[in-house]
Amino acid sequence: MEEREGSVQEKHFEMEVMGEKRKKIVKKSWDESKKMWEIATPAMLTAVTQFSIGVVTSAFVGHIGEVELAAVSIVQNVIEGFVFGVMLGMGSALETLCGQAVGAGQVNMLGIYLQRSWTITGVTALFLTPVYVFTSPLLQLLHQDKNISKLAGKFSIWVIPQLYAYAMNFPIQKFLQAQSKVWVMTIISIFSLLFHVLLNWVLVTKMERGLLGAAIAGNISWWLVVLGQAFYVLAGFFPEAWTGFSLSAFTSLAGFVKLSLASAVMLCLELWYFTIVILMVGWLKNPEIAVDAISICMNLELWTLMIALGFNAAISVRVSNELGAGNPKAAKFSVLVTVLTSLIIGVVFTIIIIVSKNDFPKMFSGKPVVIKEASNLGYFTAATIFLNSILPVLHGVAVGAGWQTLVALISIGSYYIIGLPVGALLGYKFKLGVKGIWTGMLAGYVIQLFILILVFLRTNWLKEASKAEERIKTWGGPQEQQSPSEPNMNGDRTT
Questions:
Q1: Which of 88, 192, 193, 400 could form a disulfide with 224 if both were Cys (CB 3.0 to 4.6 A apart)?
Q2: What are phi and psi of 389, to 5 degrees?
Q3: Long-range pairs for 430-435 at CB < 8 Å and ≥24 separation?
Q4: Residue 208 region, left (φ>0) first, then alpha (ψ -120 to 50), else beta?
Q5: What is the distance between the alpha carbons of residues 118 and 175, in angstroms, rounded to a whole number?
Q6: Which stretches does the entry tag as region Disordered (predicted)?
Q7: H or E element: which one contains 26?
Q8: 136: burial class by Cβ within 10 Å (0-12, 13-18, 19+)?
Q9: Cα 313 from chain centroid?
Q10: Mind listing the pLDDT tens digit for each residue in 155-196?
Q11: Which stretches of the chain drop beneath a pLDDT of 70?
């Protein structure tokens, strides 16, 4: 009897212990989820509204004509996609450095980092300007349709002001995100989007200014975003992080440029994948219809990608902050919570696209042949959206931890050595057209996802925290005297 009672008591004790563990895990997950959503929600809204500036432009231009929509789509997906990737990538070095500096308590360095990034992105914009100027001959050199290329060339010259807006915008965004100060940025972006809709209605629909009106609307809207954010940063709302312009911004540029280039290459390889797919579709028969159809689907897919980029920003900030603070276990747990949350939302969007595949193309075109072709790509769009609910989160982990070079190498292998050749083979050799090209793109996604998951599972997070500490010492400049920190039993640091 005593043995039985002892056994029952032991079981009760074990159940109580298990119950306590479950409660701790649930509470920890809830706390991490709140931290993640505090960053992800405004970042998500900002990404969606800023991307929607281009979507609104396409929607208004799509009702002008097929050639006009194809021209704008090529500029947005090829020229601006190329430039957007470079600028976002160059600005993303700030995401690693600012995030880790905040975690380490060196907020005073954020203003210097921001000025260094502005210097680098400004010079980069100057070098990229000829791409806009010579868009028409470049597209014809790539064997794109002559009429589309000429119209795209005019439109790209008209939107050059947006290039310099990107150069200012992305560094400011990373500066604000690292400090989890993004709600003002969100409000500015929402206001600019609403104003952009009004401008397009006035200039494109009422005044019938065509592509010129659409370009003017886009230029004004993007500079409203930049000027609003710049005022927020420079007007004294960040007394510790922004102490004014300094010549220190022009020191230690070599290491900063190196990390900026690594970030740019990582993101460009990702965004240029879409660009090359658009170009490959442009080489098919009836390019106007094919480009219009895939552009409609990609606009929608990229719009949902902006949702995932909210989680990308959140996990980048969380990982960089925790590694900078010497808390590797917390960084790893944050990744698990964010991936699971993004995946659930990705499944919901995937179902919505499948259900509405015959209806969503009507938002962008009134041409039955374009609507039908875009509807046929509904399942491919849904599959891409599902995969993109996970990949951006893993890319955010890479930026937060400073793995940009590794991810760039993985992208080269999965996208350019496997994905594009498979797409070309299926699209041209086996005559599957757009579906074949898109299948190759999906193959590249799946391979990269598998490799990144393996990298994450094999990561030594304690070692990554040490690397973050060394990175801050290298580029952080003179440090104030800080109390020493030691790792606790969980592998995290306590002060």
A1: 192
A2: -80, -15
A3: 433/284, 433/290, 434/281, 434/284, 434/290, 434/293, 434/294, 434/373, 434/377, 435/376, 435/377, 435/380
A4: left
A5: 11
A6: 473-495
A7: helix 2-62
A8: buried
A9: 8
A10: 999 999 999 999 999 889 888 887 878 888 899 999 999 999
A11: 1-17, 19, 252, 286, 471-495
Q: How far apart are CA 177 and CA 44, in angstroms?
A: 11
Instruction: State the virtual CA torsion across 250, 254, 260, 264 in degrees, nearest 10.
Output: 120
In single-letter form, the type of residue at position 82 comes to F
pLDDT digits (tens, 9 = 90+) for 366-396: 788 888 888 999 999 999 999 989 988 888 8
Q: Which amino acid is at 168?
A: M
Name the token pair of 275. Answer: 């660009």
Helix (H/G/I), strand (E/B), else coil: 358: coil
Cα Rg for the chain, rounded, in angstroms? 24
What's the pTM?
Answer: 0.71
Q: Cα–Cα distance between 155 and 75 in angstroms, integer?
A: 8
What tokens does 49 get?
């509204």
